Known about the structure:
The protein is of the alpha+beta class. The chain has a single domain (about 5-345), classed as Sandwich (Jelly Rolls), CATH 2.60.120.330. About 30% of the residues lie in helices and about 15% in strands. The strands form two sheets. An eight-stranded mixed β-sheet has the order 1-2-10-7-12-5-4-3. A four-stranded antiparallel β-sheet has the order 6-11-8-9, with no helix packed on it. Helix 1 (about 20-35) packs across helix 4 (about 130-150) and helix 2 (about 50-60) packs across helix 4 (about 130-150). Residues about 1-5 have low confidence and may be disordered. It binds 2-oxoglutaric acid and fe (ii) ion (FE2). 2-oxoglutaric acid (AKG) binds near residues 220, 279 and 281.
Amino acid sequence: MSRSGVEDAGIPVIDISNPSSAVALQVLHAASTFGFLFIKNDGMTIPPKDIEDMFELSREFFKLPRELKAEYAIHSKRAGGNNRGWVSMQGESLDPEGQKQGDPKEAFNIAESNPSLQPLPSPLSSSSPLISRFQASCHTLCTNILALLGNALSIPSSHGGATWFATRHDQTLGPSGTILRLLYYPSTTAPKDSQSIRAGAHSDYGSLTLLFRPPGNAGLEILKGDGSWGPVPVNPYPSALSSPPILVNIGDLLSFWTSGTLKSTIHRVAFAGGEERYSIAYFCHPRDEVKLEAVPSKLIDEFGKSEEIVEEMERQKKTLGLEGSGNGVALTAKEHLDRRLRVTYGLKE
Ligand SMILES: O=C(O)CCC(=O)C(=O)O
Ligand SMILES: [Fe+2]
């Protein structure tokens, strides 16, 4: 297969429909080198029709007048509390040190059902079966990827084996910070300068992120090893893959948990023509009470403490306010997320 168009970030597409140890190693390789991978969409894991319908719903929602969306403001009681609800234009900054203004985008965060969905405005409320089904299929995919990572990291069966990570993300056992996020970037015609950015350079917070973009949607870029930005196409092999593959990336929590073995790669959304833009992200997190203790994997122990990894762990500790502490700090998943949200939204405890 040859890759399309301009030089892209070279992220591999992996078919996990027959999960073997060889497939698990491909996933581990991509997760530890790029921090990004594409999963071939077999049409069943996440039905393409549900993806289309979610985008249609998102378009309808963001068209609503501002006042209606503001009734469900992020963190408000009406929206169901912390990290749920609507984020207004410039309402958050993903790169607080590098940006004077917040990102020129809107978002709506939907948490997992507990036991039903958070209060939602119309038209989201009338589509709750679609939303719940989409969340469930996203979670299944995350669980399958986590099981492949557990397999490739050779977690001994005495410690739970390949499902070590997956069971810690089992939503039937308790709440988690997992969020489905609808994103909308209104069109902008006059960028102030060529450096205009629609979502600031950042790494994600959780374990795994699934990212959906409609065909042709440009702008996403990842920071490459040589310091340059590489575009991430929606479908790297359009002639071979009728449905775009699902983009997956490793978040800071999983990188921190694996002592940097899995890579949480910095990415951003560049201006790219300034057309109206929609995307949908599923941020998967372990259950709140899960302790981010050492992963029982010899491979992680042996991965080596290269200068690059030591630096990366220092960067992550700084973001978490853990500078100077040893590697033995075992935060819970909830503590990890709360520390990150405090920085993004300027939240106080
Ligand atoms: O909109 C996109 O394509 C990416 C958004 C993103 O990286 C994020 O919300 O974490
Ligand atoms: Fe992101």
